[in-house]
Amino acid sequence: MKFISIAKKDFRELTRDRRGLAMILLFPMFFMLVFGFAFGGMGQSNEPHNLAVVNQDKGATMPLTGEQVNFGNNLTKILEDSQYQDSEVHLFNVTTTTESEADEKIKQRDVDAELIIPENFSQSVVALITANLQQQSLTSASASTNVTSTLVIRGDTGYTGFGTTQGILTGVLEQYQDKMVSEIQKAITGSSGVTADTYLQTRVESIPGTGSFTNFDFMAPGMIVFAILLLTTTVAAGLTREVEKGTLSRLKLSKMTSFDLLLGGLIPWSLVAAAQVVILLIVAVLIGFHWQGGIYTLLLAVLVGIIGGIASVSLGMIIAAFARNDRQAANLGTLISVPTSFLVGAFFSLPNVVIANFWGQPFQLYDLLPWTHVLSALRSTLTYGLGWEAIAYQVGWAVLLTVILFAIGVGLFAKNRLQAEK
């Protein structure tokens, strides 16, 4: 039974390499958790769709009673309370905001769609009520003021999430109009009267600059961040190899500090990150990416890419501080960097997990990673053609988190690997 002896030998070798075994077992499990969290709803069959509501309605005065009403507020409340059939799960996560902020949330995929309620929405409903009253009293309906308002459903028409949300929202609005007309007619005449079509209308439109966008236009910056994150593996393996060869220890004898050694290493890797941004952008454009903004946004993207590259190098230092050899460092680098690319939203949008608010901006759990802000800034510049003003907030967070990560990396690497000079 020689094969049993061989099996025992291989089994012992496999169990001795605990980190390698952990990677084999945990890596697929982590992917399953990430994809399940993103697409499976963590056990929920239905999920709320993120909707921004811009209520510009100024209200109106009801006929006969003289009561001041705002049907825009009423519609917003209905959207907030709408639920899936036979379920307690709401149809929408409603965020009430301004039009400019809603457009920005659409671009960042923080919301799936936005609904703009016009200023004269209440006036159009009052006009509908008045028309039914006039018809009941056999007065010419044309004598009333025909106030038409148009509800605008806006979003990135190339995004599948917008298509789904827009379809559900359209259905809810149709039910809202039908119910409103039914209640008006029942209260006034008890029979059919003037329909809502002449007074309440709906229009779907794309936010500026996204009419011809595709899913690839949203994913291409994510691929750039994925490539930048892969620097972690190369840096971790390279630093571990230099430690094994004694190169770094010899450099330490020249009275250079750990900070000097590791900061100096950032320069070539930063250039690599910048090159990745340019090369991958060229490839993306050749295969259909709609690059916006020209050279200005490219320069901003290169700057952002360098920040992301420094963050990846810092993560590589942390891994190299604990890896026993370059092979183990490479495995750990892959185990950490690839799932991280999913966690920052490189390939698909993740559910909102807001933990705080800073300067009026929601701060999510994923925002603790600098690459989340790098990705957001790259999408703002390359996909939407926005300038420095639009990415300053994200760049600020990316720089702060990268500095913290670099300080941790230098400290751990110097402590665990570069103490030979004592």
Automatic annotation (TrEMBL):
InterPro entries assigned: ABC-2_transporter_component, ABC2_TM, ABC2_TM_bact-type, ABC_2_transport
Keyword Aminoacyl-tRNA synthetase: no
TM region positions: 21-42, 218-240, 261-289, 295-323, 335-359, 391-414
UniProt protein name: ABC transporter
Gene Ontology CC: one annotated term: ATP-binding cassette (ABC) transporter complex
Cellular localization per UniProt: Cell membrane
Membership in a protein family: Belongs to the ABC-2 integral membrane protein family.
Pfam families associated with the record: ABC2_membrane_3
Entry membrane topology: Multi-pass membrane protein
ABC transmembrane type-2 domain span: 181-416
Record key words, sorted: Cell membrane, Membrane, Transmembrane, Transmembrane helix, Transport
GO molecular function terms listed in the Swiss-Prot or TrEMBL record: ABC-type transporter activity
Key word Transport present: yes
